[in-house]
């Protein structure tokens, strides 16, 4: 007997459908901090608060864009290396090391900012 997947999808939707609402008050400084975070992350208020409460990592849109660009540049450097059959291998290797170091530093900065904001939200 074959089971109908439509029922499973309907059950899954019911489990994830957001039906409960919470409202709360904030001080002016708390509201300003959340407003800044919303602008940086590009999320709605409810989405940002939900993710933070559930411990989901929230990265800024700017950081994600920079990381994406770093990956793209790394790919281009690899392409140059392959196309020139390693003629500039010392230069491309150094450039890739620099890009990797910057990407790691950016990731660490983002993680520190996330941890700090989580610590600030704990009463």
Can you describe this structure?
With 123 residues, the protein is mainly α. 74% of the residues lie in helices and 0% in strands. The chain is built from five helices and no strands. Helix 4 runs antiparallel to helix 5 (89-121). The termini are far apart.
Summed over residues and divided by their number, the pLDDT gives a mean of 79
Oligomeric assembly: single chain
General shape: elongated
Number of separate structural domains? 2
DSSP E strands, number: 0
Largest sheet: none
Residues in helix, %: over 70%
**What is the terminal-to-terminal distance?**
54 Å
Helices, by number, come to 5
Residue fraction in strands:
under 5%
Q: Regions with pLDDT < 50 over 5+ consecutive residues?
A: none
Cα-atom radius of gyration: 22 Å
Could you say which structural class the secondary elements and strand pairing correspond to? mainly alpha
SSE order? HHHHH
Question: Secondary-structure map with pairings?
Answer:
Blueprint: H1 5-16, H2 28-41, H3 45-53, H4 61-83, H5 89-121
What key phrases describe this protein's structure?
123 residues, mainly alpha, 2 domains
How do you describe this structure in short?
With 123 residues, the protein is an all-alpha fold.
